[in-house]
Amino acid sequence: MNKIIFLVAIVLFCGFQEEKTDDLPVIKNEAFEIGEEVEFHAFYGIFGKIGTCKTKIDKTIHKINGRPCYKIDAYGSTDGVASWFAKVKDQWGAYVDTTALITHVSYRKLQENKYKRDELVNFDHTANKAEVKTLDYKTGLYGDVKYFPVPTHVRDLVAGFMYLRVLNFNKYKKGDTLNVAGFHEDKAYNLKIIYGGKEVIKTDKFGKMLCHKIIPIVPDNKLFDGANSISAWFTADLNQIPVLIKSNMFVGAINVELASHRGLRNQLKIIRD
Hints:
- By secondary structure, the chain is mostly beta strands.
- Helix content is 8%, strand content 49%.
- The chain has a 16-stranded antiparallel beta sheet that branches.
């Protein structure tokens, strides 16, 4: 389960890389604001609901490196039958620049069966490097800092997810390819995403919505069945929140669906029959 969560996250939540400039970019954001909370449920065949993921934007703007930042947290856990085999309780968080939507600090607190990891990452956007340190559970202290090169204006997975929500998909044509870049744990990633055009998606809880479809090109791995094995649909309104993610794996299909929301910046656009 932890590998599934990671691979889905890495192909969807990587931030788009921009050209190098002397100053930080200014990103137009009409999609989200402080106080937003969104919940998603994961379903797997006859087993039904197997997991829950929540994203939460703190109600306070924080100052990091002299810059105003959103504090954004994502929580993931297994539910029901899945928790018999894989007990997952993860927290991914980041301080994300309110203007540039880049990550200044990120952190992860992972509990996956017997595996635990508590990680803190500081991003130096001047030197293009990430400073990573992990908690030693025996001493209760963080260990030595490890340094890794990163692309210009790189984002962690949390900030990358939020950046997808402000991207202007309307300027792309169906079949266009977008290059992406991100950083996770100790590696910088460069991936491709195909824009799949607009489609109407019918949801059980919210009705029909016009959505942008994106198809990440999945690297060869032992979980997902083919390069085009994941598709995601983001609302084609100002919120641009995902309402459905479908992943085809060698062991079956997992769907992640929008379950609830509060504090959205804009009203969801529902197609009335």
